[in-house]
Amino acid sequence: MDFRYVSNVISPEPQDRPHGAAARRGPFRVGERVQLTDERGRMNTITLTDGAAFHTHKGFLNHEELIGKSEGSIVANTTGQLYQALRPLLSDFVLSMPRGAAVVYPKDAGQIITMADIYPGARVVEAGVGSGALSISLLRAVGDQGYLHSFERREEFAAIARGNVETIFDGPHPAWQISLGDFQDEVVKAEAPGSVDRVVLDMLAPWECLDAVATVLAPGGVWINYVATVTQLSRTAEAIRADGRFTEPDAWESMVRGWHLEGLAVRPNHRMVAHTGFLLVTRKLADGVTSLALKRRPSKTEFSDEDLEAWTPGSVGERSVSDKKLRRAARDASATTQTRGHVAPAQPTVPRPAAEDSVQETDQAQNPDA
Predict the structure, then answer these.
(1) What is the pLDDT of residues 52-108, one digit of tens each?
(2) What is the pLDDT of residue 177?
(3) Which domains are present in the chain?
(4) pTM (2 decimals)?
(5) CA-based nearest residue to 94, from 135, 128, 66, 63
(6) Is 220 left (phi over 0), alpha (psi -120 to 50) or beta?
(7) Which of 126, 131, 175, 288 is the most exposed place for a label (fewest CB within 10 A)?
(8) What are 124-135's pLDDT values in tens digits?
(9) What percentage of the chain reaches a pLDDT higher than 70?
(10) In the beta sheet, which residues pair with residue 62?
(11) Superkingdom of the source (predicted)?
């Protein structure tokens, strides 16, 4: 029997580990993603496959050199180039995984989990799944006994998200459900009034979901929005204030700056992850209660028809993604789980992409400014 030390007391290793935990331990296996770091600090992520190799202009490394080795091993390619091999952390995986839409950066996902108080066992709904980066963080927070219902308008994005979620959790997650359709229409059909603890929206026009959120969110529940522009932030905040069923909204952004550490040369890095989006949070009041009118100094807060026009989703804009790129991302996202031999359960709302005849290696250099 395996034992571990907890507070100086020996206790047996639990038999029922959280979903996906076993895949994070032990030697490297076929189908796993491995992060290779060379002697200059450059990182590449590969998917271990029988008979495959990782090629660069400085030679190639056979995957068999990694399969069965312990995490943290150092291996050499055919020309002696050394690589440090580790499993990608969640932050690494998010930046290197196949994507069809822009991902929620780890710095914002961490803020969402903490400031929205996403806890184990919580019932959470989200909209705007994109490539599944935030869904992964939410599933880790709610745990196997929690509940996450994700809504996505585009079938291609849902397929990519499912592949990425099943890759990092080594199969389908028991707490996750994903549905196609507009959030404001579908969530009121799927969730009972007042049954949801947290609502997380990453979309162009969250103000259009006011009634839906107010219907399904429990009194005291948290509603957090991720928006990219000041115009979206402004209109969402004003809509929440005018509605009266929520507390005064609070908004912020976070910026992350790394530091260069080399002997006495300790200084901020020249590059940083600056603005990615704004977070706006509010809470649902009890039924029949109207929010407090906060006392403010007189100021010009009225807006004109021209201001309203600037608040439309069309004015905010959205970068289009080609169908070809989406199909490729969906194939890449599902490749790892197919290599490991997992078969996803039937999902009537979103068809799973067809399996590939062979698994293609995904060698993607990680760029924190991508």
Answers:
(1) 999 999 999 999 999 999 999 999 999 999 999 999 999 999 988 888 888 899 999
(2) 96
(3) 22-88 (3.10.330.20), 92-316 (3.40.50.150)
(4) 0.77
(5) 135
(6) left
(7) 288
(8) 999 999 899 999
(9) 79
(10) 53
(11) Bacteria
Contact (CB, 8 A) for 170 and 136? no
User: Residue 230 — very low, low, confident or very high, per pLDDT cuts 50/70/90?
Assistant: very high
Q: How far apart are CA 71 and CA 78, in angstroms?
A: 21
Distance CA 155, CA 59 (A): 40
Q: Over the range 189-207, which residues count as b (16 or more CB within 10 Å of their CB) and which as e?
A: eebeeeebbbbbbbbbbbb
Distance CA 139, CA 144 (A): 8
- Token look-up 């928006």 returns 227
Q: Is 5 buried (19+), middle (13-18) or exposed (0-12) by CB count in 10 A?
A: exposed
Task: Return the H-helix or E-strand segment holding 338.
Answer: helix 323-339
Sign of the torsion angle spanned by Cα atoms 167, 171, 172, 175: negative
pLDDT at 367 (0 to 100): 44
Q: Are 363 and 45 in contact (CB under 8 A)?
A: yes
Amino acid at 250: D
φ and ψ at residue 128, rounded to 5 degrees = 85, 60
Question: What mean pLDDT is reported for the chain?
Answer: 84
Dihedral pair phi/psi, residue 339, rounded to 5°: -65, -40
Which tens digits make up the pLDDT trace of 260-272?
999 999 999 999 9
- Helix H, strand E, coil C: the string for 85-118 is EECCCHHHHHHHCCCCCCCCCHHHHHHHHHHCCC
pLDDT of residue 82: 96
Q: Residue 110: is it exposed, middle or buried by C-beta count within 10 angstroms (0-12/13-18/19+)?
A: middle
Q: Residue 202: name the closest of 269, 131, 96 by CA.
A: 131
**Count of other CB atoms within 10 angstroms of residue 155:** 15
